[in-house]
Automatic annotation (TrEMBL):
It comes from the Bacteria. The lineage of its organism: Bacteria, Bacillati, Bacillota, Clostridia, Lachnospirales. It comes from Catonella morbi ATCC 51271. GO terms for molecular function: 5'-nucleotidase activity. This is HAD hydrolase family. Pfam families: HAD_2.
Length: 236
């Protein structure tokens, strides 16, 4: 769905979120955890257990985005809570998380022909990757997906020193990517509290990728809302 009343114009700078937007994070997440359950001899990880983990993980990342918890803590404590809930030993949780960061990059699944869409956009626009998460996980994802060779700039929160939606993250993006006029930029992402809030904080137009048609229960109003990345053709 495109916001009514907006005069369409071509953007010069496209800020792309990765997990959940360009790449299907849930598929990578499930594959990584199942692989590591086998590696650490933790038994079978059922669909129900994965559902529990996904909810726990989202809860911790919300705390990070709100500035209520440091990344070093959430990376480990999410698994501590998950393992405790499932009655699994927690003595190797730190090593499990370390291996998990690498395993996340082993499964690359694009959403809605995202790779082809970005390649087409590259002809007329500057492609800027803006992602939260760890450097070790994202560097592997970007390399295996080929996005590292397409993007003009890559900003990983762990290397930037701030997480989306922190205004300082976006200030660094604007400065280093050479965005002289933020009205020529748009951020495309699936997270209201990270991508859309960050765009609002920095005066950048926002495109909420909402493939599941989730309810927006925040006070944030994205410039655009889409359910399929192909809809970007009418925006960009």
């Amino acid at each position: 769905m495109i916001k009514a009343g907006k005069i369409m114009s071509k953007y010069k700078y496209l800020l792309w979120d990765i997990d959940g937007t360009v790449l299907n994070f849930e598929e990578a997440e499930k594959a990584a955890i199942r692989t590591l359950f086998d590696k650490f001899h933790l038994g079978e990880c059922s669909d129900e257990m994965l559902s529990h983990y996904i909810k726990i993980n989202k809860k911790y990342w919300k705390l990070l985005e709100c500035g209520k918890m440091e990344k070093e803590r959430i990376l480990v404590e999410r698994f501590e809570e998950f393992f405790a809930k499932e009655g699994i030993r927690t003595d190797e949780v730190k090593e499990f998380n370390k291996e998990y960061q690498l395993a996340l990059g082993d499964t690359i699944v694009f959403n809605d022909d995202a790779l082809e869409i970005i390649k087409a956009q590259k002809k007329n626009c500057k492609i800027i990757i803006v992602t939260n998460g760890t450097a070790i996980a994202h560097k592997k994802k970007l390399e295996r997906s080929g996005l590292d060779k397409i993007a003009d700039n890559i900003f990983i929160s762990e290397l930037v020193g701030f997480e989306k939606p922190n205004i300082h993250f976006f200030e660094k993006v604007i400065a280093e990517a050479g965005i002289e006029d933020v009205s020529q930029a748009v951020i495309i992402g699936d997270s209201l509290t990270s991508d859309i809030q960050g765009g609002c904080n920095s005066g950048i137009d926002t495109c909420w990728y909402n493939p599941k048609g989730e309810i927006n229960d925040t006070n944030l109003i994205p410039t655009y809302t889409i359910r399929n990345l192909h809809e970007l053709e009418t925006i960009i």
